[in-house]
Amino acid sequence: MTTETHTTPACMFCHRSSVVELTAAEAAALRAGALIQDAAPARPAAERELIRTGIHPQCWTDNFGPGFD
Length: 69
Prior knowledge:
The chain is of the alpha+beta class and 69 residues long.
């Protein structure tokens, strides 16, 4: 399986970016404008949020409380 490295936007809370490995199909779908839930449906919601907005799961919990998924 071919993968591509994706650097996320900076998290709005901690201001750090992350690096995520996407499959070539996921990366192509995102570049084509697909919604994240359509481009990467097998990934957990927290990981999709990280890819799209840069918000880390812990930053989400710290700011909005538990229960992301």
